[in-house]
Amino acid sequence: MKHRSALIGLIALLAAGSALAATGPEKLSDPRLEARATALQRQFRCLVCKGESLDESNAQLADDLRRLIRTRVAAGQSDTQITDYLVSRYGKVILMKPPLEAGTYALWFGPLVVLAIGGIVIVLVIRRSRVGAA
Amino acid sequence: MTGEIGQVALCFALALVSVQAGAGLFGARAGAEGARAVASGAALGFFAFVALAFGALTYGFVTADFSILDVAQNSHTLKPLIYKISGVWGNHEGSMLLWIFVLSLYSALMTLAARGGARLTSAALGVQGLVGAAFVLFILFTSDPFKRVDPMPLEGAGLNPLLQDPGLAMHPPMLYLGYVGLSASFAYAAAALITGDAERQWARAARPFMLAAWIALTLGITLGSWWAYYVLGWGGFWFWDPVENAALMPWLVATALLHSSLATERTGAFRLWSLLLAIAGFSLSLIGTFLVRSGVLASVHAFANDPERGAVILIMLGAAIGGALALFAWRAPKLEGGAEFEPASRETMLLLNNLLLCFAVTVVLFGTLYPLALRALTGEMISVGAPYFAMLFAPAFVALLVLVPFGPRLSWRNGNLPDAWRGLLPALGAAGVAGIAVLAIARPVSLAAAGAFSLAFWVIGASAIDFWRKRQARMLNGQSLASVLAHAGLGITLLGITGATLWRSEAVDVLSPGQTLSVADYSLRFDGVEPAQGPNYQASRAIIEIRKSDRLLGVVTPEKRIYPAEGQEVSNTSIRTNGFSDLYVALGDERGGGRWSVRAFVNPLAPFIWLGGAVMALGGFVRLWRGVAVRVVRLAPAE
C-alpha cells in the first residue's frame, strides 16, 4: 500500500511537471546547443517508460522534458544546473546512470568483487590441475 | 464445452505429472524397472493432456469463445487469425499454460531419447515432474485459463496492440522453448546428483536439450530485439529493460554451460562447475519468470498481475533453487578428482570464457535486481540504465572476444600457444586492416568504431581460418562447424551494434506537406497524411518520398495506428534496408494545420545485429542436427 500511494504521488508529480513544461522548443536552431541538449536527454530516463531514455521515447512526459531541457539550454544553464534541477524535481530515479554513493557501492563494485574472486579461483584451479601437480 | 475439456485435461495432467515425479524418483534406485516404465508412460501422458488443454484454449481463442474469461479479456472478433492464436500466450494465464506445455514437451522428448541410461533418465523425469506438478498446481489455483464468465460478453476486450505483430507472435514461444528448455539440463544435473553418477553421462545426455534451449533463447532474444527496433519507433534495439535482462541472463549462463560441459563430456573436467551452471541456468529462468509474471516490474510483458501470484512463484523459485543447491552441497563433496591440464590448453580457455560470462551475468543480475532491492530496503528509488551496463558489461565482452579465437586452436590438456598465435596471424592482419580502414574512410572518426571493427574482424577472421583449416584436414564436424558459425555470428552482431550506435544519423522535425527532411545523404519529402483502415485499427498514414542524391528511391508510408477496441495508439515505422544499412522513418504526433512531427534515422549495419543472432543460432542448430543425425545412423545398423 505504501508503494501504491508513493506511486500515485509520483504520477501526480509527473502530471504537474508536464503541465509546467508543455511549452518549449522541440528543436534548437543553434546546432551546438541542440547537440548539447541531445547529449543531455540521453542521460535521463523517461520515468513512465521501460528502460528508455528521454532520447528514445514517445511518451508525453519525455516530450515535455525534452522541451524543458531545450528551454534551459537556450537560457544558458550549464549541464550540471539542468541535471541538478531534474534530480531535485524527480529524484535520482531520473538518472540513467546511478550515482556512485554509499547506497550504490555494492551495485558498482559487487560484480567486480565477483570477478576478482572468480579470477583467483581460476588461477588456483589452473595451478592445481597442471599435469603431475597432484 | 471447450473450457471444460481444457480444465479436465489439466486435472489429468496434474495426476500424471505427479505420477511421473514419484515413479521417476523411485526409478532412480537400482532395479526399479517397473517404476521407470510407469514414469515414462506418465511423462508421455502428461504431454498428451497438456497438449489437449493447450489445444482447447487455442480453439477457444480461434473461435472467439467469450464464455471463457481469458478469451473475453484478451481477444476480439475482428482480430486477424494469427493474433487470435498468439493471443493464447499474450496474457498471463495462457502464457503459463504455454510454459507447462513446453515443459511437458521436453519431458516427452527426454523419455523418447532415453539418453544417459535408465536410472539417470528416470531420475531426470522425476525432477522434471516435480517442477511440472508445481507449475500445474500454480495454474489451477492462481491462474486458471479456463475460468468461465457469466453472462458471456458479446465482444472481447482485445489484445495489447503492441503484441499484435508477426515478430512478437513468435517471440514468446521461442523464448519459452529456451527458458523452459533449461529445465532439462537442470533435471539431468539434479538426476546426476541423485544417482551419484555425475561423471560425464549427464552432460552427454543433456547436450541436445541444452543446445535446443540455447538456440531457442538466441532466436527469442534476437526476435525480441528486432521487434523493439521496428515497433518502438526510435531506432533502439536493446534497452537493458529488466525483462530483456531476464532473458539475457539464462542465455549467458546457457552459453557458459555449453562451453564448460564440452570439457565435462570429454574428460569429466569441471564436472561440479557444470552441474552448478546447469542449476544456475534454470534458476535464472525461474527468476525471469518471477520478474515478468509477478508484477514487480511495470512492463509491456507484465499484462495483468497480482502480488499473490508473485508470492507463489517466489516460493516455487526458492524451493527449486534451494532444493537443488542443498542436493549439490550434500552430494558434490562425494565427487572426487579433477582433470589434469596445462595452463596453455583448451580447458584454460573454457575457464576464462566461463569467468567472463559469469561476470557478465553478475553485472546484469545486479543491474536488474539492485533497484528493486534498494527500494525494498531503504525506499530509495534509483534507475540502472544503459550507461551502467555499457561500463561493466562491455569490457567483459571485449575481453571475451579477444580470447575467443584461441579457444578452438588450443588442444585439450596441453596446447601450443605459439602455434595458435602463428595460425591466427592472418586474423590479426584482417583486424589491423579493418581498424585502419575504418579510421581512414569512415566519418565521423571514431577510435571506438575502429577498435570494434578490429575486434569483429579478429573473431570472424579466426572463424574463417578455422573453417578452412578443418576442411583441409577433413575434420569439419558438427562441433567445429558450430563453433565457427557461433563465434562468427558474435563478430557479425558486434559489427551491427557498432554501426547502429556509433554511426547513426538522425533527424527530427515538424513538417508541413511539401517540406523535406534531410538525414545522412537521403532527403525525405513529406507529402501529407491520409487516413487508412486496418482490420481492427484506424491509421494515419504518412506519404514520404525518398531521394538519395536526387535519385528517386520510392515512397515510404509510416503509420500511427489507433486500436479502438483496446483504446491504444501504436506507431508502425517504415524501414528501407539494402542489407547493409537501414533508413528508418517514423511518424510522430500531429502538430496542427496538417503539420506532423517526423523522425528519420540512418542506421548503418543495423541488419547485422540480427543476422549475427541468426548465424549463432544456425551454429547451434548444425551441432544439434549433426548430433541427432549421427545418432540415428549409429542406431540403424544396430537394429
What would you note in describing this structure?
The complex is a heterodimer of chains A (134) and B (639). Chain A has 134 residues and is mainly alpha-helical. Chain A has two domains: 2-97, Orthogonal Bundle (Helicase, Ruva Protein, domain 3), CATH 1.10.8; 98-134. Chain A has five helices and no strands. In chain A, helix 1 packs across helix 3 and helix 2 crosses helix 3 (60-74). Residues 1-9 and 12-22 of chain A have low confidence and may be disordered. Chain B is α+β, with helices and mostly antiparallel strands and 639 residues long. Chain B contains 17 helices and ten strands. In chain B, the strands form two sheets. In chain B, strands 2, 3, 4, 5, 6 and 7 form a six-stranded antiparallel sheet that branches. Chain B has a four-stranded antiparallel sheet with strand order 1-10-9-8, with helices on one face. In chain B, a hairpin with a 4-residue loop joins strand 6 (559-563) and strand 7 (568-572). The longest helix of chain B is centred in the middle third of the chain and has 33 residues, at 346-378. Chain B is globular and about 85 Å long. The interface between A and B is large, with 44 and 55 residues.
